[in-house]
Amino acid sequence: MHGENDTQFPSRYELGDDLPSRHPISGSHLSLWDLTRGRRKLLGHCLALCSTVFLHGYEFVITAAVASTPAFQHTYGRKQRNAYIIPAAWLALWSAAGPIGIMVGSIIGGRLQDRYGRRSSLALGSLLSIVAAALCFVSDRPDEIDSRRGVFLAGKLLQGFAIGMLICMSQTYLSEVLPTTLRGPTIALLPMFTLFGQLIGAIIIHFSSKSGSSDYYRTAFASQWVVSVFTLTCAVFLPESPAWLLRVNEVGKAQKSKRRLNLAQEDTDLGASASSDSNDTSYLQCFQGGHRRRTIIVSFSSVLPQLFGLTLFSNASYFLGMVGMAAQTSLIFLILGILLGLLSTFVSIWYTAISMIVIVVVCTAGVWPASHVIASEASSLPLRAKTQAIGWFSFGLAATAFSIFFPYIYNADRGNLKAKTGFVMAAFTVVGFVGTYLSLPEMKDRSPSQIDRMFELDLPTKDFKFWQEDERTLVGQGHHMITLQALMITQVRHVFL
């Protein structure tokens, strides 16, 4: 005897409202400006929270770009022929320190924000970021060169840990409070804030290197405090996530938080939040049942920017120095590449620099913002913080691997591939393209409950775009139609025969 929920036709579709239709979801016909009316307070809080992503880009370019400056190389490097260079082993460690910190920080942060709230995680991450900047600031004080390198490594590790907590919390918060119509456009801005942070950091490095001081890089390290203090201030004034408050049974506080965010009832879809306490969830649940597929989607989309060379581009100024470009010129090209990336939301050496700029523009217009949106939408609300943490752990793991890998293939004292490194990256982009086509579903304009339903039905990736709640027909990619009558006959036969 079969229960009514056991019957499926075909094997992964249920009869009724949850069948794909022949037409994709049309979405809202309102302009983005119209959609923001009445929600300016909400968007103000969300944009202020994006300062954590700005800090991510700012800190990474500061600590990466200084490696291309002569004063830093003289203090932390060793002499080879007529110039100072950073040994490949230490360069790889420094490059990997941030991503490793992100891996640990995101996992711990995912647990902390579920237990103590989103604001507490934001405040703790900001305080740790301030301490990390202080370690980098004093790292040149020890007499022994390995001690200087070690203190700088500790600062980068702690900074990565803080960044992991901050960006994991930010993406979770944004995906919880933003209404469906604004979730995609707003979260797609995260790469822009990353690039903006990188732009400001590169400009500071460029002009401070002209100051004539022998330790001008310390000014760049100290400037990180300004951004960290701002994110700490955000933690004071930011309303707590209503979704988290509901899950800890603080209904009154959740309503108050919704009023502070100026959220209308129709802006939120928190039914799943009210019925589940995220404190009782574990990371193991993210890999059980239907959540396994969603976690894999989040993890893969988080890794996509790395497959297109994000780690290599964050070290672009040092990399261009290895292929023969002067330090000041490489910094200018880094700034130009970031600027063109923001506007898009010669032979040998010059060709390499220009090619990197083009790739930044293309990735910023497509895969990078899309990866953030997909990662934010794919996870279920009760497991959202932990799934986001796993996604950023995957990002950090990929960034760590690439950070260790790349210096050994392009650095002068190792593989010395220089511009030929681009062929290696081309292979990874093919992997990213194939994986995207086969595994990432279309979730544009879907509410959390609709996304939950599609994953419960185990829809194939290609059918997410065409599924509608109110349709009674299933159109198979232009080949054939299964009518309601045929489905009913099949169901009767399945139950009684």
UniProtKB/TrEMBL annotation:
It is found in: Membrane. One of its GO terms (molecular function) is carbohydrate:proton symporter activity. Its main location: membrane. It comes from the Eukaryota. PROSITE patterns: MFS, SUGAR_TRANSPORT_2. Residues 45-444 form the Major facilitator superfamily (MFS) profile domain. It holds the Pfam family Sugar_tr. The keyword S-adenosyl-L-methionine does not apply. The chain crosses the membrane at residues 42-67, 88-108, 120-138, 150-174, 186-207, 219-238, 296-313, 320-343, 349-368, 389-410, 422-440. It is a multi-pass membrane protein. Keywords: Membrane, Transmembrane, Transmembrane helix. One of its GO terms (cellular component) is membrane. Belongs to the major facilitator superfamily. Sugar transporter (TC 2.A.1.1) family. This is Major facilitator superfamily domaingeneral substrate transporter. It comes from Penicillium desertorum.
